[in-house]
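Standup notes, structure subgroup. Blocker cleared on the benzoic acid input:
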Amino acid sequence: MASFLPRAAPRALRFAARPVLRTPAFRRGFATPPVAEQPPPNFQAKTTHGDIDFHKYIEGSWAILFSHPADFTPVCTTELGAFAKLKGEFEKRGVKMIGLSANDLTQHDQWVNDINEVANTTVSFPIIADADRSVAYLYDMISQDDLDALATKGGIAFTIRAVFVIDPAKKIRLTMLYPASTGRNSSEVLRVIDSLQLGDERGIATPIDWNRGEDVIVPPSVSTEDARKKFGQDNVREVKPYLRFTNVGK
Ligand code: BEZ
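Run returned:
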């Protein structure tokens, strides 16, 4: 990934000193990475909204933690602007937002001004200052290519673009990992939250490309007879004995 760095990236970013490795292993995934259905590791950090204890910040709420490789980089700037504009959509779903980028608070504050200007918005969620990448290592959000290259070529290990969706019981319900070169799809983040929340409320699953309001799937653990009792006699469509659709509205 290091070779992908845009030429315009700040010199400090391209030639930054090799970070201190916080994990004993030298491969992503060796150090008990947070996985679905597990509690997210707790940490204390400085953010653009003051110091936080992560577990206290997310207490009792749905939350997304989304990471960025670096401040003042183009893809990240577009992503932060898009997430900021969707504040109302996340609030409607009861989701607290928190970003992370591998720079310090002074840079974050200057970068937030840029994002607000470029996207014509106001970033109103906190951004964690993870200049030493301690949270990135804790959450296994470091580029494997960079880690492999560190041993032979030195350089910098970038934080990849990760999204962790965490539920009010403090379980990681979904993880997305993207390379630095590919910006995320903010609608997809909302869509998966809709799927998880509706699944929890109504005991259903959601098919490929599903969006709110469309037909959902009766899970295999529920018989067609029970599904008809639950969702309505005329509201279960059996395509195959193992593929049943119903509609539970928006
Ligand atoms: C960016 O455009 O956000 C970016 C690209 C490469 C490395 C890090 C960040």
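Discussed briefly. The chain has nine helices and ten strands.
Next: hand off to the docking folks.
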